[in-house]
Amino acid sequence: MASREEITVCEDEVRSLYSHLEKMTDLVAVWEVALSDGVHKIEFEHGTTSGKRVVYVDGKEEIRKEWMFKLVGKETFTVGAAKTKATINIDAVSGFAYEYTLEINGKSLKKYMENRSKTTNTWVLSLGGADYRVVLEKDTMDVWCNGQKMETAGEFVEDGTETHFSVGDHSCCIKAVSSGKRKEGIIHTLIVDDREIPETVE
After folding, report:
1. I need a surface site. Which of 44, 192, 195, 201 has the fewest CB within 10 A?
2. How many of the other CB atoms lie within 10 Å of CB of 123?
């Protein structure tokens, strides 16, 4: 028969294992959101017994609510340098099953990303061993590189416009040229040190 000490040790191990598991199982959703200043990771913990809600953006805790009697609802917070509005919706599906959806600026993540691909161009490139992510916001002509809004100089050229900026000691230029087709509109090309960089689809 096991001694009382052994039973206590065993109970403590089970308790610590249980609390560790509870921590792990509270993580119910993870999203990756590509914004102009970078790709942000959103994690959501939902304790369906305690109603606990915790939102992390890029590993940093944004919201923590320990005891919530209402298990459904929404949590709203901001993401990234431009403080983009994000909302996590918590809906009951059946019994104790829940569905978690992320909205960015009031649109479902899928709709937001589809719309974003029309309003931005993204290029990912490597320069001198470092990786860079360059984003052009077509409506404002703002250029972002690795989370920083760049100082740019625009000029009109014979076949369109050129937006000049530099990354480290590399000269960069985004050329905007009409495609000549109404459906395609304007074609944006990134040129770094006289080399054309292919666009990245996010």
Report:
1. 201
2. 21
